[in-house]
Structure formats: structure tokens, C-alpha cells
């Protein structure tokens, strides 16, 4: 096998109709992969080929983030890598059946070991002749860029719009050619967005992201039919969960899991969020476990991404534990009671690894402002690993009286710096000083890791 002509394929083929927020607007597929380009030899560049299958007109975007060049060049403006976008007309005539066979071989075997240079020579025109004259590029050529000089940042971007006439000519078959011109090894991440159907996310590429989502279970309750109802949110203001997560199955699938008195119930991300809401920053969804009906006082723990597949800005707020029921307390409509409803909406760590507790008033009435000066005001009770830790008054928890209005939230920093794994249990109004619309959702438990 000729290593310099090794063919590394990631053919993005049609699997199923993509999930999208609107049925009329299809989201572009996104491929993000970690790459290694080995050094060239004797003026023969190390070359990788990335075929993609476009399934409709739209825009192809290609960008590269080079994380390391080894050895590091003395000239910081040196750009040894070349990325070129062509369509399948750059190859000798290739029948659709041959293209599919090509793809199947790549999908079935490790391409770096199975697809040798000899296998592509029958189709590739000489790379040196591939791009035509400088002033007259062939019709199959759609852009080129050099990269490598900015090791810490993203390179230039190739953007190419595929219109209907071109789509009909190419049948949606495009190839990104990735070449290393220098005697040095290059590592980094490749980003491709295109009007296709299959998205992929390489875990090694994910480690190099600048910003991550933040999944959390915001609320666990019962609906009017006594079914377990969960609100899951992405609190990140900068990014959503990668679209490729909706294609993952089996042990790689992202799940929403409920533990109901020791009995487990799970659902995958595509089933819980078929519209892809969590792909957007600051988004949320409500999911009903239609097989989980609770008619008596029950301890429930709900966790999103329990196996830690998604890299997040905060890995400590993915679970919420509550005591649900009895139904007479749980299912009284708040529109009738007109009462406040306090709940511990989050337990997490701040940037300094100090434990922070969030209290929310999710009722339709606010707390009486006189409670802040009362001798019998409600308290926030905290336990760590089952041991009593702190009992904090309302006036200390909510100095600004945010809970005096419906929908208000109070963020209380305990000042405690977490140095080892711990389970923290927080209960607001443990002594039932306040008459609430729901007296069963005052406690939350979270497993925290420093």
C-alpha cells in the first residue's frame, strides 16, 4: 500500500429524513473530524480524499483548524496544507454503481488499511493536472485554500453554492482533497457543512471546540394524567448539541433516563427531541414518559446524558431528584390555588468550583414580602453525602426578594469549594412554612464532581 496515496473516506450517504425545526426547511449536515496528515516524501504530498454526497442544492462550507505542526516551522506564515473542492467529474468516468461500491468498501473496512492508492488510481486524473490553467479552471473545480500558519486559529473558508444545474450534472458527488506539502506532520480538525443527510462528530475533534452546550434537567413533575413529565434544557448561550448526536444509536446514543424507586426508564435523544430543539443555544423541551404513571409518593431521579457522551461547560447539573406525589398534592391545578410554588431548580458549581443552589418560584403567586423579616421565614436546608450541612434563611438565600414574584429565581452561593466528589441534597421550605400549590417538589439532589 502506498501510504502517501492512502485514501481516507468518510462518505456521507443518505440514511433517513433529517430532523429539523421546520418540515419545510432542511438543516445542513455537519461533519467534524480530527485529522492527521503525515509528512510528504520526495515532493510527493501526503493526500487524503473526503467524498461527500450532496442530496439537494445548497452551500458547501469547508474550514480547517490546525492544532499542531510537527516540527513547528520557524516561519509562522508557512502554509503547507492545501484543501481543494472538486466534484466527481475530476475523476475519469465513474458509474454510480462504482461510486457506491467505493463507498461500501470504505464504510465496511478501516480505509487507511483497506483502500490503497492503487484502488483510486484508475479514477483519479493526475493531481498536478487536476486544476487546469491558472486563468481557466475546469468546471469541476470549486475552490482551494492554503492553511497551517495560524496554529491556534481557524483557517480560511471555502464556500461553494450548488445550484440546480450543477447538482444535475454532478449528481451530488463532491470530493474534498486534503494535501500536506511539507516534511512535517499536521494535526487538527476538519469542518464540513453541506446540504446532505448524514452528520458525524469525532470525539477527538470535540475536545478542541471553543465552546460547549450545557444540558440540564430543569423540572420533574406529573401532568394531569399522573404521567412523569420532564423539562430538559440547553443553558449554553453559545452553542447547541451537535446535529450528529441525532444519528447515534446503541451504546453511543445520548439518552434521557428516569430512575423511579430503583426501576429504570430510558429514551434516546432522537425520540425525546425529534424536532432537534437542543441543537439551539438557550433551548428546552418537555418530554412525557407515557409508560410511567405515578399514583403514590415516589422518589424519582432524572438524568440527561447519563454516560457523559456530550462534552459540556458544566457536567454537574445533568440530574435532578424529586419526591413526587401523593397525586392529591401533585395534581391540584395552580390556576385554582393561586399559590406560590418553590422548587430547587439547580445545584451546580460556579467557575471557582463553589457550590451554588438555584431556587425558583414556579407558581402563579409570589411570596409575601413580609416573610423576609419574619421570625418564621422558610429555610434552605442542605445536606452533603447524607450529613446535615447548612440551614439558610430566606433572607440570606434571596436578598433581592426575587421570589416575591411568580417566575422569580434566586441564586445562592454557599461559598463552599468542592474538592472531591459529593452528593448534595437541597430542600427549600422543609418545615412547610409556606402554603404552596405543590408541596412535593421542594427537594433536589445532585452528584457533583470538582
So what's the oligomer here?
single chain
Number of strands: 23
The number of distinct structural domains comes to: 2
Low-confidence stretches: 1-24, 105-128, 327-336
Gross morphology is: elongated
**What's the rounded overall pLDDT mean?**
79
Strand arrangement, major sheet = 6-3-8-1-9
Percent helix:
10-25%
CATH class of the largest domain: Mainly Beta
> Biggest β-sheet: count, sense, barrel?
5 strands, mixed
CATH superfamily membership of the largest domain: Immunoglobulins
CATH architectural label of the largest domain: Sandwich
- In what range is the share of β-strand residues? 35-45%
Protein model, in words:
This protein is mainly beta and 450 residues long. Helices cover 11% and strands 39% of the residues. The strands form six sheets. The protein has a five-stranded mixed sheet with strand order 6-3-8-1-9. Strands 2-7-4-5 form a four-stranded antiparallel sheet, with no helix packed on it. The two termini are 48 Å apart. The relative contact order is 0.13. The longest helix is centred in the first third of the chain and has 13 residues, at 96-108. It is elongated and about 85 Å long. The chain has two domains: 3-206, Jelly Rolls, CATH 2.60.120; 235-448, Immunoglobulin-like (Sandwich), CATH 2.60.40. It is built from nine helices and 23 strands. The chain has helices at 96-108, 111-114, 117-121, 164-170, 203-206, 269-272, 327-330, 334-337, 394-397, and strands spanning 29-37, 46-53, 58-70, 81-87, 141-147, 154-162, 173-180, 185-194, 200-201, 215-222, 227-234, 255-260, 263-268, 283-293, 298-304, 319-324, 342-349, 354-361, 379-384, 387-393, 409-417, 422-428, 443-448.
Amino acid at each position: 500500500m502506498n501510504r502517501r496515496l492512502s485514501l481516507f473516506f468518510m462518505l456521507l450517504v443518505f440514511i433517513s429524513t433529517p430532523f429539523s425545526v421546520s418540515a419545510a426547511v432542511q438543516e445542513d449536515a455537519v461533519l467534524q473530524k480530527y485529522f492527521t496528515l503525515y509528512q510528504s516524501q520526495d515532493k510527493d504530498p501526503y493526500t487524503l480524499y473526503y467524498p461527500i454526497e450532496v442530496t439537494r442544492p445548497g452551500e458547501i462550507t469547508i474550514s480547517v483548524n490546525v492544532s499542531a505542526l510537527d516540527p513547528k516551522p520557524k516561519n509562522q506564515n508557512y502554509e503547507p496544507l492545501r484543501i481543494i473542492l472538486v466534484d466527481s467529474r475530476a475523476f475519469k468516468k465513474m458509474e454510480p454503481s462504482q461510486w457506491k461500491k467505493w463507498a461500501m468498501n470504505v464504510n465496511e473496512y478501516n480505509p487507511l488499511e483497506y483502500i490503497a492508492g492503487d484502488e483510486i488510481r484508475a479514477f483519479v486524473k493526475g493531481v498536478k493536472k487536476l486544476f487546469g490553467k491558472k486563468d481557466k479552471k475546469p468546471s469541476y473545480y470549486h475552490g482551494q485554500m492554503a492553511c497551517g500558519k495560524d496554529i491556534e486559529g481557524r483557517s480560511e473558508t471555502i464556500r461553494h453554492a450548488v445550484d440546480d444545474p450543477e447538482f444535475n450534472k454532478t449528481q451530488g458527488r463532491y470530493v474534498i482533497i486534503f494535501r500536506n506539502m511539507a516534511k512535517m506532520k499536521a494535526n487538527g480538525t476538519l469542518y464540513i457543512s453541506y446540504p446532505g443527510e448524514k452528520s458525524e462528530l469525532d470525539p477527538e475533534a470535540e475536545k478542541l471546540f471553543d465552546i460547549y452546550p450545557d444540558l440540564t434537567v430543569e423540572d420533574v413533575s406529573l401532568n394531569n394524567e399522573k404521567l412523569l413529565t420532564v423539562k430538559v434544557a440547553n443553558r449554553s448561550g453559545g452553542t447547541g448539541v451537535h446535529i450528529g448526536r441525532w444519528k447515534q444509536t446503541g451504546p453511543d446514543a445520548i439518552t434521557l433516563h428516569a430512575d423511579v424507586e430503583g426501576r429504570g426508564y430510558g429514551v434516546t435523544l432522537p425520540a425525546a427531541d425529534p424536532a432537534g430543539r437542543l441543537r439551539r443555544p438557550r433551548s428546552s423541551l418537555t418530554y412525557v414518559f407515557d409508560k410511567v404513571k405515578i399514583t403514590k409518593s415516589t422518589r424519582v431521579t432524572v438524568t440527561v446524558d447519563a454516560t457523559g457522551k456530550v462534552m459540556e461547560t458544566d457536567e454537574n447539573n445533568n440530574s435532578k431528584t424529586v419526591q413526587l406525589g401523593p397525586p392529591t398534592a401533585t395534581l391540584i391545578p395552580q390556576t385554582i390555588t393561586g399559590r406560590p410554588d418553590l422548587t430547587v431548580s439547580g445545584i451546580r458549581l460556579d467557575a471557582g468550583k463553589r457550590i451554588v443552589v438555584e431556587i425558583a418560584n414556579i407558581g402563579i403567586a409570589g411570596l409575601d414580602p413580609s416573610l423576609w423579616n419574619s421570625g418564621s421565614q422558610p429555610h434552605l436546608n442542605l445536606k452533603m453525602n447524607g450529613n446535615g450541612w447548612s440551614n439558610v434563611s430566606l433572607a440570606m438565600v434571596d436578598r433581592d426578594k426575587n421570589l416575591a414574584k411568580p417566575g422569580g429565581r434566586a441564586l445562592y452561593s454557599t461559598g463552599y469549594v468542592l474538592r472531591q466528589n459529593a452528593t448534595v441534597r437541597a430542600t427549600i421550605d422543609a418545615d412547610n412554612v409556606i402554603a404552596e400549590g405543590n408541596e412535593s417538589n421542594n427537594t433536589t439532589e445532585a452528584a457533583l464532581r470538582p
